[in-house]
Write the structure tokens for this entry.
Amino acid sequence: MFFIKDSPITKMILKQDVSNFFKKYLTHEMSNKEIQTWCEDNVGELAYVYYKYYGADQSWDEAEKLMFFVESTYGRDDLCSIIESFVDCQ
């Protein structure tokens, strides 16, 4: 599959995939230490999601930034929507 980097369609699909990743794997009742460990352990899986759209050069950096953001904002009721907003701004 070929995507044009930074196109609106690519961003929309990436945003959906990233949101689905967190909905599928992130639980809502984790301690600060558990969320920190989860983010560290799953950055590679998230980087693979980015890799499908951006390639190897940028995927790991973007995944690390998002995991740091998630770690910092975990516990909010609107976590999925702010994750999507973060991906839009990347």
Q: What stands out?
A: The two ends are 21 Å apart (CA to CA). The mean pLDDT is 88. The CA atoms of residues 47 and 59 lie 5 Å apart. The longest helix spans residues 32-54.
